[in-house]
């Protein structure tokens, strides 16, 4: 009986922290999706125009954007444990 009284505030605190993690995770997925789109778009523009900035080429940016999009899709399909509540 006393354990239920003591664990109830801790459980509520853990749920509150989990909710904050969930919001942060959703924001990071949004930022990742937007940045992968922008990186692929900028890479395509650089590829078609023929611009090379240092060692950065359009093909490298397109490949990096595609890899980032694949990582975002993976974390969308298989979220961490705090998202499965």
The number of helical segments is 2
Beta strand %: under 5%
- CA radius of gyration is 21 Å
Mean pLDDT: 86
Shape: rod-shaped
Which stretches are low in confidence, meaning pLDDT under 50 for 5 or more residues running? none
Report, as a whole number of angstroms, the end-to-end distance.
Answer: 26 Å
Main beta sheet = none
Order of helices and strands: HH
Provide the domain count. Answer: 1
- The helix/strand class is mainly alpha
Number of strands: 0
Query: Which oligomeric state applies?
Result: single chain
Q: Helix fraction?
A: over 70%
Layout of helices and strands, plus pairs?
Elements: H1 2-49, H2 58-77
Helix pairs in contact: 1-2
Describe the structure.
The chain is an all-alpha fold. It has one domain (2-78). Helix content is 80%, strand content 0%. It is built from 2 helices and no strands. It has helices at residues 2-49, 58-77. Helix 1 (2-49) packs antiparallel against helix 2 (58-77). The radius of gyration is 21 Å and the shape is rod-shaped. The mean pLDDT is 86.
